[in-house]
Structure formats: structure tokens, C-alpha cells
């Protein structure tokens, strides 16, 4: 995966980054509030020795730099800490005093700095003053020769003791910045990890790669699609309707040398929108002037008649068992050249019925009665009905819902089709998240259609009672029954 791929993962899981940044800032704020303020008191010593010439001065400087390192250890020694505690009642033990002392020796110089950190500003200053006095006394005592002559090394206080007026810790700004940065890094890592570990189908490129077939369309998600799934009325000018029209164009030109006239629409799992896709694809083809026949071959959970507002009590099942002629149950939908064959009664043996010779003969007859036959089938991984129907069609269209189906499930569905030599025409990513820029481009360029009378009857009773619809249906059924 390239850098852009990782950035897309972070963008997709932006909420993880936001949560971790807020947690980092909250933790930093909590630590800052709960941490007691600490003050620093410091004192700087200058170590010197008499010199008699340039050579002596150079050698003396090297000698003093070595001694400064030893004095740094002496400042944190138990002996000095005990003398500080004994001289001034600070309310601290020798170990506590020693733990508060930090020394710094500037490289290449003979300066030695001692810093004491304490939560009590006054105590920090008092401890530093006592430390400076006891340290100079201890050095003088240690460096004085046994004969009582002047010591060769002299310690002078050149800065301090002084204490900071403001606490040196905690530092709210620094803590918040560090907390935010740590939260950001953690969030980016978790977002990338979640994206890499996510096995669900997230984009069209992945769907095309898993199925090994062309991506014929990406149908955008719309909140109103659940209550109004068909691309009619106000939905006919939506971005979803335009995406279905693009699918119609791609489907017609996916193979110009061997066009598919009988198309099985299926999916890996139920609930991915295959029935809606079959209905809308048939509507879009009929809008372009094709004579389209939509068959509901999902005999276990038929939904085509419900979506189109038709009577589905008698249909494909009754034709296959020989109870009725196909011309008696095919229904015209709306004012378009769209015919619909509902599923009919639910049979006890759907797969056997769909794989029978009657089904094969029916598809041969219907192929000559319409320009394009669209068949809504059952999900591939649930039952074998979808594969049985797809074998008898010219090709299959695989519908996958974004963010719901895993890559392994899509691969298994594609394998179920290829294992029986079904021609996979292409795949469709349904309920896809479209970039705002793309949605804006369509909204800015779409054609505003003036309101017109609905082309679909208001209810099922109206559909059955409409005089014009009944007349058209009778004429069409007479032609199909010949």
C-alpha cells in the first residue's frame, strides 16, 4: 500500500484520530492539574587556583576541570546531605535532600551549578543556601594541606542562590502539546491498523480486484433510498439515478461483440440491494427505449412485486408448474416499455424448480419476446438458487454493499459463479460513499425537471384498476402467449 492508501485509511477512520487526540489532551490536562507545582533554586560555583604563568595556567585549568567532575559527585554525597540536614531544620531526611540535588558542569569551563527542586519555594531556597555554605566549607576542609597552608583550590559562589518565582513544572503548554502529539500518533497508528485489518469491501478498486471483473458502477448512498428505492419521481434526478444510468451504459457496452440479453442480478449475501438494483436497472433500460422484461426469480424472499406496486400472487412459480401461461401473468409497469413477471407462490423446492427444463424453455421463449431480460436471483452464499439461474443466463451482475460484505465473501461469490462457467459481466458497489466534490459536480450540472404527473399508480389497488394499464397489459400478454 502506498502513502496515499495510508492517508485514505486515516481519513476514513478520522474519528479514531479525533478520539485519541482528545484523550491525549485530556490526560495531559489531568496530569497537569494533579501535579504539585515545583520550584527550582540554583547556585553556581567557580573553581579556581593560583597560577604563576601561561604553562601553569593551562595545566591548572585541565586540573580544575577534572576536579569539577569530582565536586559534582561531592554535591550529591551522603556526607554533604547529612551536614545540610543537621545545620537547618528543613523537614527532610538526608536521602530526600540528596534526591533533590542535580548538578551540571559546563564542558570546557570550571563552573559547577547545583539545582534543587522542591514543591516548597521557601524550602528550596533555604536548602540551596545551606548547601552552598556547607559545600564551600567541605571543599576547603578537604583541600587544605596537612601543614595548614592555604588550599590550592578555591571555591567561590558567582551566582545565586536564587529561586524561580514561577513553578518550573508542570508546564501546561508543553504537556498539552505533547499529549496532543502522542494522541495524534496513536490515532494515526490505530486508524491504519484498523484499516489494514478491516476485511470488509470498502471501495470499487478492491471489489474489481477481488472479483476479477470490471467495475460497472458505484451507486451512491442516499438517506431517502430506503423509503423510495426506485429511481422514479423526484428520485429520477438524483445522483443515485444518474449512477444507475451509467451502469446501464456500461452494461450495454461491456462486450459489444457478445452482448448479454439475459442478465442475472445477484449478490453474495442478502440485504445488499440486489433487488433494488435489478428493478432500477430494468427501469433505466426501459427509459432508453429497450423492451425490458424483469423476472423475480428469488422464490424464497421475493420483493420485486412489492417494490413496483404489483400483484405478485401469481407468477413465475405458477408458469413453471404449468398452472398458467406466461402471457397471463406478465404485467406492464407504468408507461415505460417494462414488463414484469412476479415470483408467484413460494414453492417447497425453489432450486429444483429453477433448474428444471421448464425454466430453460421459458427463458428461451422470453429471450425472443424482449430486448433485454433482467432476472432478480437469490444470494449466492445463502442458497444455490442464484447459481442455478445464472447458469441459464447470458451473464451475471454481482452487487456488493460497501462496508458490509467481506472480501472473502465476495471472492466466494465470484468463485461460485466461475466454478460453473458463469460469465461475470461485472460488479457494482452499492451504497457507496461518494466524495462531496463529486456530489457537488452532479448537483451543479443536473437538469431540473418540471413537476409532472406520476407515471406509477399511487397504490396497488389503483394499479389493478387503472383502465389504461389493464388495456396495455392485455395487449402485451396476448402477444407473449402466441
Quick rundown:
With 482 residues, this protein is α/β, with parallel strands linked by helices. The protein is 49% helix and 16% strand. It has helices at 3-12, 14-34, 54-75, 78-87, 94-99, 121-143, 172-197, 204-211, 239-252, 274-287, 304-308, 316-320, 326-329, 350-354, 357-367, 385-392, 407-418, 436-445, 460-465, 467-481; strands at 39-48, 101-105, 111-118, 154-163, 215-220, 262-267, 292-296, 331-332, 338-341, 372-376, 395-401, 424-432.
Summarize the structure in words.
- The protein has helices at residues 3-12, 14-34, 54-75, 78-87, 94-99, 121-143, 172-197, 204-211, 239-252, 274-287, 304-308, 316-320, 326-329, 350-354, 357-367, 385-392, 407-418, 436-445, 460-465, 467-481, and strands at residues 39-48, 101-105, 111-118, 154-163, 215-220, 262-267, 292-296, 331-332, 338-341, 372-376, 395-401, 424-432.
- With 482 residues, it is α/β, with parallel strands linked by helices.
- The strands form 2 sheets. Strands 5-12-11-6-10-7-9-8 form an 8-stranded mixed beta sheet, with helices on both faces. The chain has a 4-stranded antiparallel beta sheet with strand order 2-3-1-4.
- Strand 11 (395-401), helix 17 and strand 12 (424-432) form a beta-alpha-beta unit.
- Helix 1 crosses helix 7 and helix 8 (204-211) runs parallel beside helix 17 (407-418).
- The radius of gyration is 42 Å and the shape is rod-shaped.
Amino acid at each position: 500500500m502506498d502513502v496515499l492508501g495510508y492517508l485514505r485509511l486515516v481519513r476514513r477512520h478520522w474519528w479514531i484520530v479525533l478520539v485519541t487526540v482528545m484523550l491525549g489532551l485530556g490526560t495531559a490536562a489531568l496530569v497537569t492539574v494533579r501535579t504539585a507545582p515545583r520550584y527550582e533554586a540554583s547556585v553556581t560555583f567557580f573553581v579556581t587556583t593560583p597560577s604563576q604563568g601561561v604553562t601553569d595556567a593551562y595545566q591548572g585549568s585541565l586540573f580544575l576541570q577534572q576536579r569539577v567532575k569530582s565536586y559534582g559527585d561531592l554535591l550529591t554525597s551522603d556526607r554533604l546531605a547529612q551536614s545540610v540536614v543537621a545545620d537547618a531544620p528543613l523537614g527532610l531526611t538526608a536521602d530526600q535532600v540528596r534526591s533533590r540535588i542535580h548538578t551540571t558542569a559546563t564542558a570546557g569551563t570550571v563552573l559547577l551549578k547545583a539545582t534543587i527542586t522542591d514543591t516548597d519555594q521557601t524550602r528550596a531556597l533555604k536548602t540551596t543556601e545551606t548547601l552552598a555554605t556547607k559545600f564551600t566549607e567541605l571543599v576547603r576542609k578537604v583541600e587544605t594541606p596537612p601543614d595548614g597552608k592555604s588550599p590550592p583550590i578555591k571555591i567561590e559562589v558567582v551566582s545565586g542562590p536564587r529561586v524561580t518565582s514561577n513553578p518550573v513544572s508542570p508546564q501546561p503548554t508543553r504537556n498539552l502539546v505533547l499529549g496532543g502529539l502522542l494522541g495524534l500518533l496513536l490515532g494515526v497508528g490505530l486508524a491504519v491498523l484498523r484499516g489494514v485489518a478491516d476485511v470488509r469491501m470498502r471501495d470499487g478498486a478492491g471489489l474489481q480486484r477481488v472479483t476479477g471483473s470490471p467495475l460497472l458502477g458505484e451507486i451512491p448512498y442516499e438517506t431517502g433510498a430506503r423509503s423510495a428505492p426506485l429511481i422514479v419521481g423526484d428520485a429520477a434526478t438524483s445522483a443515485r439515478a444518474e449512477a444507475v444510468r451509467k451502469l446501464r451504459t456500461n452494461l450495454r457496452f461491456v462486450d459489444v461483440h457478445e452482448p448479454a440479453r439475459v442478465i442475472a442480478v445477484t449478490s453474495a449475501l442478502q440485504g445488499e440491494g440486489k433487488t433494488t438494483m435489478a428493478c432500477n436497472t430494468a427501469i433505466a433500460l426501459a427509459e432508453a427505449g429497450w423492451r425490458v422484461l424483469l423476472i423475480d426469480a428469488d422464490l424464497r424472499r421475493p420483493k420485486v412485486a412489492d417494490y413496483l406496486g404489483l400483484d405478485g400472487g401469481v407468477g413465475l412459480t405458477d408458469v413453471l408448474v404449468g398452472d398458467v401461461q406466461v402471457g397471463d401473468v406478465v404485467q406492464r409497469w407504468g408507461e415505460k416499455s417494462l414488463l414484469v413477471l412476479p415470483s408467484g407462490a413460494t414453492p417447497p423446492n425453489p432450486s429444483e424448480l429453477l433448474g428444471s427444463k421448464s425454466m430453460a424453455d421459458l427463458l428461451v421463449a422470453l429471450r425472443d419476446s424482449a430486448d433485454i431480460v433482467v432476472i432478480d436471483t437469490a444470494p449466492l452464499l445463502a442458497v444455490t438458487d442464484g447459481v442455478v439461474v445464472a447458469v441459464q443466463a447470458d451473464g451475471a451482475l454481482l452487487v456488493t454493499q460497501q462496508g458490509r460484505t467481506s472480501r472473502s465473501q465476495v471472492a466466494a461469490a465470484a468463485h461460485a459463479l466461475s466454478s460453473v462457467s458463469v460469465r461475470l459481466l461485472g460488479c457494482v458497489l452499492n451504497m457507496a460513499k461518494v466524495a462531496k466534490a463529486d456530489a457537488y459536480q452532479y448537483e451543479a450540472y443536473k437538469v431540473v425537471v418540471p413537476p409532472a404527473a406520476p407515471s406509477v399508480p399511487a397504490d396497488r389497488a389503483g394499479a389493478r384498476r387503472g383502465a389504461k394499464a389493464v388495456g396495455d397489459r392485455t395487449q402485451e400478454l396476448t402477444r407473449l402467449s402466441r
